[in-house]
């Protein structure tokens, strides 16, 4: 029989399952971010004890490996300087005539709908290193953002 007609199993024709991608760069976290990661790992480990169908179990273990890696690589960031925008800062700024406030946090804690953006996001990168009263470039525009105030994210 020709090798072309041989079929070992259905598994060899499935798409390979890759690990969940990790964000590039350091895994900086706030105290809140670290607590969220630890809670997620605990939640997934509780599920891990329950019996799951094979396909669900494979996906569950993949997610659990992701969160365990994030927990193991978490680097609590030092508090930001009082007057400079940095990781862990709450920033009020004016952009396009609108005043906005955001918290600059880690990748896993980010939730733009809640005003928390990752330090790796373009907006955060534009603001980091700035001071209250300073105008910074953003989106290809010179002095597009005016930083109104900055403070440490309250606990």
From TrEMBL:
Residues 1-24 are annotated as: Disordered. Residues 1-18 have a biased composition (Basic and acidic residues). Keywords: Elongation factor, Protein biosynthesis. One of its GO terms (molecular function) is translation elongation factor activity. GO terms for biological process: DNA-templated transcription elongation; regulation of DNA-templated transcription elongation. Residues 81-148 form the Transcription elongation factor GreA/GreB C-terminal domain. It holds the Pfam family GreA_GreB. The keyword Transcription regulation does not apply. PANTHER family: TRANSCRIPTION ELONGATION FACTOR GREA (PTHR30437), TRANSCRIPTION ELONGATION FACTOR GREB (PTHR30437:SF6). This is GreA/GreB family elongation factor. It comes from Sphingomonas chungangi.
């Amino acid at each position: 029989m020709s090798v072309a007609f041989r079929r070992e199993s259905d598994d060899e024709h499935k798409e390979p399952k890759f690990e969940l991608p990790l964000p590039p760069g350091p895994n900086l976290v706030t105290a809140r971010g670290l607590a969220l990661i630890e809670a997620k790992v605990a939640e997934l480990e509780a599920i891990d004890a329950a019996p799951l169908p094979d396909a669900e179990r494979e996906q569950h273990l993949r997610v659990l490996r992701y969160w365990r890696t994030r927990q193991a690589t978490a680097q609590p960031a030092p508090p930001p300087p009082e007057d400079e925008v940095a990781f862990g800062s709450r920033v009020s700024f004016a952009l396009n005539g609108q005043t906005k406030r955001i918290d600059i946090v880690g990748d896993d804690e980010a939730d733009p709908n809640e005003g928390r953006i990752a330090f790796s996001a373009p907006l955060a990168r534009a603001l980091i290193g700035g001071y209250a009263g300073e105008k910074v470039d953003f989106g290809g525009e010179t002095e597009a953002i005016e930083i109104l105030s900055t403070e440490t994210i309250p606990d």
